[in-house]
Structures are given as C-alpha cells and as structure tokens.
Design brief:
globular, homodimer
Chain lengths: 134, 134
C-alpha cells in the first residue's frame, strides 16, 4: 500500500476525508449533493470483482459505514452507490446522499450539469461531520 | 424467502434469467445495453447496508459471477454496477456491460432516452449465453 498511486483526476476533484482500512474516503468537490468516493488503495484494479475476497469484504464494510454516516448526517431520502469507471478506470465506489427534488432527482448524478465547488467552510463542515460518525 | 414479493415495475421491465442463492438475476428489457439486475429475495430492504452481513457476502459473490459472465459473453470495455433505487425502492443491483461509443457512453445508462425492447430471440440468446457462464 505504500506505493499506491491515486489517479490524478480523482485527486484533483476531491478532498481526502480519511484513510480507512482499505480505501481512501474522499469528498467530491461538488456541493450539489453530499457525494463521497471510496478508492481502494490497490493499483491496477478497475472492477470490484478483481479485488481479492478479503478486499471485497473490506470495501463492503467501508461502504456500509460511509452510507450509514451519510444517512445520519444528512437524513437523506436514499443512498445511491455505484462503480462506473467509464472515464477514470481506477476503481472508485461512489456513495451519494440523494433527496427528493435534488438537482438531478430521480435520475443519476453522474454526468449531470456542472460541478459547483464547495467554499472551504462548507467542505470542512461536511467532512468533519462525516468523519465524526465513522 | 417463500413469500418474497418482487416489485411490479421490476417484474414488468425485466425477464427472469435464474434464481441464485440470494438474488433473482433478471435481464432488463432494453436492447441498447446488456443490462442485468440482481434482486435480493428479501422484503422491505432498500439499501445494501440493511442486508445482513451474510446476505451482503452472497450479493457480492453473485455480482462477481454476473459481472464475470457478462465480460466473457460480451467482451465489454467496462462493467458498470450501481444501486440507485430513487424510483423503485426495492433493493436491486444493476450490472451493465458498457462499450466505448455505446448509446450513453461515457455517461450513465439510468434515465437515458427510451428503452428499446428485445425481440424474443435476442433476449433468449443473451439470457442463455449468460446462464451458461454462471
């Protein structure tokens, strides 16, 4: 794990919240939705089924923890999870809080409109609220 | 599991391929993409983290098997997986074969345009090719 290399675009588009057992938990810099990604710290993996069984179990556990924290903090209607990777191939799992009437509701958030970056205060507040619940 | 009730919209929009250990594997009736859903046969579950740990492990295993079968059959560029549930709340996991230049590439397939139903022959051929690889 010492030489894990995070994809440059994922790095540029998100803030590091916490390093969990397997994944980096990162906040996407788009204030339209509370939108996190979990990036397993493994090189050359683009599909979840390429992870070892142990890593898959860790990923599931970390997704659960993230989703539960997000529900507690945001009181959202629905969690959306997804691994697409059509643009950035490095495996990253999206965990997003959705609410009825949000910008893309009930459609998916990926590829929708243009990101609206957080101000520093907004990102920090959400990141610390989530980190506290983990 | 005897009294599992499949959501009516999921039932209407898809064909049953196989009943696995936990899930019904179903083919979405949209020929634009090889698009399957896995529906855990559990009532009143809308989020993956509401499943028991054993059921989560089964779901992961069945997603792996489905994704690998889909890759072998379609030779696709990328697998997309996702659990959204903004419209139908009953938990269902999408497993979709994506190819560069397909109708929605590189965006998500959910909510994109209008479904193009299979002819009976096309659906049967894909379903049996996948079933053979499971």
């Amino acid at each position: 794990m010492g030489d894990f290399k995070l994809n440059e675009r994922l790095e540029a588009d998100s803030h590091l919240v916490s390093i969990l057992g397997l994944c980096q938990l990162r906040l996407l810099n788009d204030s339209r939705w509370p939108w996190f990604i979990l990036v397993p710290q493994r090189n050359d993996i683009s599909e979840t089924h390429q992870l070892t069984p142990l890593d898959q179990t860790l990923l599931t556990f970390e997704m659960n923890e993230t989703a539960r924290a997000l529900q507690r903090v945001t009181q959202c209607t629905k969690i959306n999870i997804g691994a697409l990777g059509n643009i950035v191939r490095q495996l990253h799992m999206h965990v997003i809080a959705r609410n009825e009437g949000d910008a893309a509701w009930p459609g998916p958030v990926w590829g929708f409109g243009k990101a609206e970056p957080y101000d520093t205060k907004g990102a920090k507040a959400l990141m610390s609220a989530i980190a506290k619940e983990l």
